[in-house]
Amino acid sequence: MHEAPSFFSGDSAPSQKNKSILTVDIFDVLCYTLFSEKAEEKAVITNRYPYSMKLYFTIIGAAMALISAVNIVLQAAPWHLVILSVILCTALQFVLDGIVAATVSTLPDRWFGANNPLFLVAEKEKKLYKKLKVRRWKDKVWELGGLGGFSKRELKEPDNPRYIEKFLIECNRGTVTHRLSYPIGFLAMLAVGSPLRFTVAIPVATVNLFLNVLPTLVLRYNAPMLRSLLKRLEQKKNRKHSENSEIS
After folding, report:
1. Helices (H), the chain
2. What letter would DSSP give residue 120?
């Protein structure tokens, strides 16, 4: 495993046992790779994973409680049916999201390649993410890619072109997974009848939509920087290869 030791300086360097739960902002890795003079000052290392997952489940729990309370107060159905419907619809979101993720994970990497024009981020889109200040809050967003075998929570090998390319592929794969989950989550409407179909199933699916939109924004925000990083590493590799060829 390659390390980027210059991310850490002096007493701020994390211990070996803590490195596995620390993450490096992709923007900072890019600054490092581009030999920015202030790369070390920009590097932000934080223990974000436990917090983001706690926030994820807090949102789900709060939404379940709110939806249940509103339906019970409005007497949309007997309270026990309301609670059972909320639990059922929420469970279905996990199942549907899981099916989508499992299906997309079986698709070949070449469909999500770094040079696939379908995944290029336009300048207008980049400006949108800047207006939304994605970089400020993206560290709080959950990342569940590790469940599929490739975690995007940290860049373990920031100087390895193959690893960065794989990272970018998984970002593109994640984008497709989340976007497919937007409409599919509303299939939960078929599991309950009226009026709970509208007062429970749709609100639960809307929460699921929100929980999928945020990771999509983060993945799309990171993609251009990963692509720039990959291009820089490949140029560096080719330059080194040319120099070795001249020497030999």
Report:
1. 26-33, 39-42, 49-73, 79-105, 123-131, 134-137, 161-184, 196, 202-247
2. P
Q: Give 46's strand partners.
A: 23
Q: For tokens 């789900």, what's the residue?
A: 60
The answer to whether the beta carbons of residues 229 and 30 sit under 8 Å apart is yes
Nearest residue to 55 (alpha-carbon basis) of 46, 43, 44, 63: 63
3-class secondary-structure state, position 129: helix
Rounded to whole angstroms, how far apart are CA atoms 106 and 83?
Answer: 35
Closest CA relative to residue 222, chosen from 146, 117, 114, 102: 114
User: To which residue do tokens 């692509």 refer?
Assistant: 227
Tokens found for residue 12: 């701020």
pLDDT in tens, the chain (248 residues): 443 333 333 333 334 443 333 344 444 444 444 433 333 333 332 335 566 788 899 999 999 999 999 999 999 999 999 999 999 999 999 999 999 999 999 999 999 998 899 999 999 999 999 999 999 998 888 777 666 667 676 677 777 888 889 999 999 999 999 999 999 999 999 999 999 999 999 999 999 999 999 999 999 999 998 898 888 888 887 777 666 666 65
Question: Are residues 4 and 158 in contact, defined by beta-carbon separation less than 8 angstroms?
Answer: yes
- For residue 5, say if its preceding peptide bond is cis, omega within 30 degrees of 0: no
**d(Cα 82, Cα 152) in Å, to the nearest integer?**
37
What is the Cα–Cα distance from 205 to 88, expressed in whole angstroms? 12
Torsion region of 224: left, alpha or beta (phi above 0 gives left; psi -120 to 50 gives alpha): alpha
The predicted model scores a pTM of 0.75
